[in-house]
Design goal:
- With 163 residues, the protein is an alpha+beta fold.
- It has helices at 20-27, 83-90, 100-118, 134-140, 151-161, and strands at residues 2-5, 8-11, 46-49, 52-55, 68-70.
- The mean pLDDT is 92.
- The structure holds FE2/S2 (inorganic) cluster.
- Residues 1-75 form the 2Fe-2S ferredoxin-type domain.
- Keywords: Iron, Metal-binding, Oxidoreductase.
């Protein structure tokens, strides 16, 4: 079975019970994706599969045959940060940082969803620019927990990245 991770092709022939999360971390050395609850409740393990956010602890590696997976390592680097990552830095959108990779993957998907017409309103005065309310962002990001409670800064970072 083969899959693409961050644009690179990988072959998987391991235990079919291996979660995507364990494969990414232990099989591929992509430790940016974090294991929190391992039960689909915290969002720390969020990655993108074909652009959709997925809790990688809840899906099997073998189910990703032919799919394109993006982890935090594929979104940006220290030298070339994605604008969303730069906004997290600017707004202190983290404290311990453990949830941050999942927050950013989730927010990237949410921003794409909004751009594709999910947003409940589009302002008239900003020439069609998509603007989300804090409540909309909170609702759409509710699957990603931050034990440090940096939620308001996370929202500020996402709002800046969307402008
Ligand atoms: Fe997957 Fe918590 S580790 S949701």
């Amino acid at each position: 079975m083969s899959l693409t991770i961050n644009g690179q092709s990988y072959e998987f022939d391991g235990d079919p019970r291996t979660s995507l999360l364990d494969y990414l971390r232990d099989g591929c050395g992509l430790t940016g994706t974090k294991k929190g609850c391992d039960h689909g409740q915290c969002g720390a393990c969020t990655v993108l599969v074909n652009g959709q956010r997925v809790n990688s602890c809840l899906t099997l590696a073998i189910m990703q045959d032919g799919h394109a997976v993006t982890t935090i390592e594929g979104i940006g680097t220290l030298e070339a940060m994605d604008p969303l990552q730069a906004a997290f830095v600017k707004h202190d959108g983290y404290q311990c940082g453990y949830c941050t990779p999942g927050q950013i993957c989730s927010a990237k998907a949410m921003m794409a969803e909004a751009e594709n017409g999910w947003a409940s309103f589009v302002t008239d005065d900003l020439e069609g620019e998509v603007v989300l309310t804090d409540e909309e962002i909170r609702e759409r990001m509710s699957g990603n927990l931050c034990r440090c409670g940096a939620y308001s800064n996370i929202i500020d970072a996402i709002k800046e990245a969307m402008t």
